[in-house]
């Protein structure tokens, strides 16, 4: 399995995949990077391959509304029959966080971009808007990955009037710190994107039920024909909120053990954006919204559903593409960091950033240095990262990270051969 379906059910001799959408799972991160993405090109596996090659029964347009652990059934919306299971994998992903209750918040032209339907509706609106304005004014609320990636995507589409509105001083400040965030701000502004820092949205302006602007707490109104709300996401677990056995965390996540099992029921597994699992390096329960983590969790959950005893020990890893510049990140800094050590030219987006917590490197972010981030995954896993002191004094650097990773890989190969 890969944790990009909604619900996967295993019973003796069959696998059932329950999907709320009209298509099988697809590569969602592409949607914020390419506004012209074609669905056929981003399917993880075509429907025919799932059904005929893998023997999976795929239920499309099927929304799970509850799980009965006593009878081992998944309840579906409407008159659809319940689906029985021996083993159950919940991987419903996350939903876009929305701005609700704001003046004119229901005007046409305000979008989130989370699924294929969102992108189709946005594309249709942009085509319609061409009749009135060939170069629409685009305002993006949110200055983390979704917001910045969409700014680049609109720019690539030819939009010359793009504004990013953030609550932070620089993009990514809360996640990656002010120095890396400052580099991203410099990059997007060099492409003509306007950035509004420390700005709170209090409403929208509209005319004839079409959005015309974004109102800030300062009183300023940013003129806009299209508004994208990219302020994060929440676990898609509302259908389980009334079921005490799932003991949802405050943010809606489902807490699991190291095998990605529900502690209250060893036949139920959880993967992807909704899973709060114990991080192998610290033991703290973390929830990671990364594509690579979801893929690996689906595979580990499948092994354990088949009777294996494989704890999930993957070091989180993700990537982003911003105006043609690749960003890679390895590790976890959800509990914060004490220091960021920069190697390279951060102003030119050619750098390695080492994140330090309690005098240990706990994460690495790179731009223009992709192999270093990949190598860092191995070193973080094996506790082989150079110390902060060595990095500060220049005694070790990214070349050492690459060399240690290469040596470790060679050692593993020898052990396998022996």
TrEMBL record:
The keyword Metal-binding does not apply. Residues 317-392 form the Reductase C-terminal domain. Keywords: FAD, Flavoprotein, Oxidoreductase. It comes from the Eukaryota. Its EC number is 1.18.1.3. GO terms for molecular function: ferredoxin-NAD+ reductase activity; oxidoreductase activity, acting on NAD(P)H. GO terms for cellular component: cytoplasm. SUPFAM superfamilies: FAD/NAD(P)-binding domain (SSF51905), FAD/NAD-linked reductases, dimerisation (C-terminal) domain (SSF55424). PANTHER family: APOPTOSIS-INDUCING FACTOR 1, RIESKE DOMAIN-CONTAINING PROTEIN-RELATED. Belongs to the FAD-dependent oxidoreductase family. This is Pyridine nucleotide-disulfide oxidoreductase domain-containing protein. It comes from Toxoplasma gondii RUB.
